[in-house]
Amino acid sequence: MRIDRMELADLGEPSRIASAIHKQIGEVELPVPVEQIAASTGIIDIEDLETEGFEGGLVTDAEKLEGIILVKKGVLQTRRRFTIGHELGHFLNPWHKPKNGDQFLCSKSDMRQGQSKSLDRATRMEAEANEFSAELLAPRSRFLRDLRRRPGVDLEQIVSLASRYEMSKEAAARRYVDLHDENCAIVFSRDGVVRYPYRGPNFPFVDTSNGSILPEGSVSQAYDGAPGTVSGLQEVGPEIWLSNPRKIMLYEQTLLQQNGFQMTLLSTEEDEDAEEDAELTDAWTPRFRRR
């Protein structure tokens, strides 16, 4: 595999850099060979370290001619792959400069940072590295092709895509929400407590915050299946999850995972009886509560 870094140098936008890599290497067999790509761009080693201080790291020279990627030892292969992609995103973006001398040290929270328009430079760099990793591991055109083979929203499809692209279910769910044609969102929780919500570009404001209890009356709170099982997709009252529910139909589905982790998929449809309220709702701007 050969990758010409000169063709990547001035692209800037993380997804464009990852797309340009895929353009050079062609449509490779899945899962995307992230370690081979890293080696072809100047990463001379990937080291697994015993650490509690960070999830991943990058040590490089000032010109970023070569680099070493660090990964927390013992993590699942799916997480390891995303971390390598994340650190490679720092390495290949010329505007990413480490605040710790010659190295990036990235935490678990950095690996899920999604606010790429943040005014904080460090936060923006972490979000851009995540954007790069997502595009590298799950190229938009191929992921969309897979999405459109199965209409509607379904957590079972997220599980299947996570396996196909060798991504964590969390990373695959975020990619799913970002690219799906339908309005949807994911709420990640553990032991009945919300970890964080993640919404698609047009999904309404979700009335929950990090550390809050799963809402009363939700499918997610009531579901008592075994770990690994997915509930049916059920219509629920929009007021359960949305602070400004207006006239929409809300659907919920949940996946129970190991160690108390849980994913909740929410999707919406416009209520056909609400056309008379269209003028009022035009001014409404959907968004999540920000942290």
How would you summarize the topology of this molecule?
Elements: H1 14-25, H2 34-40, E1 43-49, E2 56-60, E3 67-72, H3 77-92, E4 103-106, H4 121-137, H5 140-148, H6 155-165, H7 169-179, E5 184-190, E6 193-199, H8 219-222, E7 234-236, E8 248-256, E9 261-270, H9 278-281
Parallel strand pairs: 1-3
Antiparallel strand pairs: 2-3, 2-4, 5-6, 5-9, 7-8, 8-9
Helix pairs in contact: 1-4, 3-4, 6-7
The side-by-side strand order for the widest beta sheet comes to 6-5-9-8-7
Strand content: 15-25%
> What is the structural class?
alpha+beta
Q: How helix-rich are the residues, as a percent range?
A: 25-40%
Q: What's the number of extended β-strand segments?
A: 9
User: Any idea what the CATH architecture of the largest domain is?
Assistant: Orthogonal Bundle
Unreliably modeled segments: 278-291
CATH class category label of the largest domain: Mainly Alpha
Task: Report the CATH topology name of the largest domain.
Answer: Arc Repressor Mutant, subunit A
Radius of gyration, taken over Cα atoms and rounded to an integer in Å: 20 Å
Question: H/E series, N to C?
Answer: HHEEEHEHHHHEEHEEEH
Shape: globular
Largest sheet: 5 strands, antiparallel
Distance between the termini: 41 Å
Domains, number: 2
How many helices?
A: 9
| Overall pLDDT metric | 90
